[in-house]
Amino acid sequence: MRAAAAAIPDKLYFKIGEVARLAGVEPYVLRFWESEFPALKPGKSSTGQRLYRRRELEMALQIKSLLHEQGFTIAGARLKLKQEHQGKKAQATLPLHSGRDRELLQRVRAEIDELAALLARKA
After folding, report:
1. What letter would DSSP give residue 40?
2. Is the whole-model pTM more than 0.90?
3. Using CA atoms, how far apart are residues 8 and 4, in angstroms rounded to an integer?
4. Element at 15 (helix H, strand E)
């Protein structure tokens, strides 16, 4: 997908015909994918024209790769994308090297709890 990403024009929005041409599929295929992949949800203009942002275009390219090149089924591709999305959302762990780091983190957490309690009392 790196080569395809380099060929994506530098624009904010893409119409469905442009996305179809860049992805090498028909517009009706993109509309079908929108119904099958919840993450592929382009916005719409005031006239109802689908407007894909770069991330949606990249997702369409990834879906095409999963389905056409890697041989995934629709359900398999949906699961793969969901797993990748969950992996990106996972919180990074902080490297706490010393007991001092842990103590500082505990003090900050206690102060946040105190502030939350104060705000709860005022509300």
Report:
1. -
2. no
3. 7
4. strand 14-15
